[in-house]
DNA sequence: TATCGAGCGTACCGTACGGTACGGTACTGG
DNA sequence: CCAGTACCGTACCGTACGGTACGCTCGATA
């Protein structure tokens, strides 16, 4: 998947404030995301907005990238891997993924990106995919492969195994949220959900010694 | 989930043609879905559109319901259920669900509904959920329960079991499509995917005699 | 044949919003 | 103290689109 032209330069503090204003407006309801509203909320002039971001799409793109840059956790290398640490890693991934996709910000952002994917031009959808679904895939797959190398997991294709993991974790959550269902999970429910998903994944792909 | 006021009366043939025009325009790109474009495409006057559907939202709502009315397959009763027929039933569900969510029409419609869910008012999202995710849930759960009654499956909560099935079938397909990835599956891939999902589901919930 | 309603096509209105222009202000460097 | 820069606030422009009004045709009914 093409992420669509690398980010040019990191936003200044003032620019970050503007992008946060955009995020806030997104969360408050997708339809009030006008350039006027952004300028008012961020206490800046529209002219500045256009100077910094070119046009509305540029502003949206910068916002998506800004949010993505905050979500990325560092990818720590996996060295020792026994049944317990593998399980912990997977649980961490599941919890953080569920936390992300159930957050108001993510829901709002994904709504914008999905809507944008309908009308071509400037693919926010691609950026969101690259920084969401694909980014976590690239982080999980090494763990799965390390698990296989340690004899803890068995699968032929790590991509396919990851997709199953993804499905077991997310189930119907994301589409229900995107379509407007209330359904807010607290940290406990997320943890239980993650536990269940990891249990099921290990039941499918785990070797005896887990 | 509230479906949002039952459908008033079935559309006339002429009205169906109008709604099909709306669907066609949705598929061609979400942004050209203007009342003018619909009137032109359907060879009718805007005044008629407003007379029949009240306003733009009414037209969209009618379109979503119209599409939903076409997707609903009859729910046949489940009587005899052995391991083979259970598997067949689940495979049928998986195939038809994958076929639906990968169809251009469904993607376009879901995009509209998701976008609409951002700005409150007239929840298309609720209607889509009710006729998609929840409708299939209500059709699958009786089968799961029959499978449990026949000693073929083991689970405590059929809703939860269904959600796992849903996740195993859909995985990341829907979100990737909604976010604009190309990814078109042909009938063969769908069938293989459905097979895999059913295998995995039975591995998790099946009793020995499957 | 006269009347009537349904509906097509087109013209029109109001407004919201993307984008631009411009005056005013504060800070920076010489 | 002056020039330059960056930016705020506001006014402005053009257009696209939701919604309305109106004249016309056509088929049905008496």
From TrEMBL, chains A, B:
Q: Kindly indicate whether the keyword DNA-binding belongs to this entry.
A: yes
> GO molecular function terms here?
DNA-binding transcription factor activity; transcription cis-regulatory region binding
DNA-binding region positions on the chain: 34-53
Q: Which UniProt keywords apply?
A: DNA-binding
- Can the keyword Iron-sulfur be found in this entry's annotation? no
HTH tetR-type domain spans which residues?
Answer: 12-71
A Pfam family that this protein carries is TetR_C_7
Coiled coil (residue ranges): none
Q: What is this protein called?
A: Transcriptional regulator, TetR family
Task: Name the source organism.
Answer: Methylobacterium pseudosasicola
User: Which classification does the entry list for the species?
Assistant: Bacteria, Pseudomonadati, Pseudomonadota, Alphaproteobacteria, Hyphomicrobiales
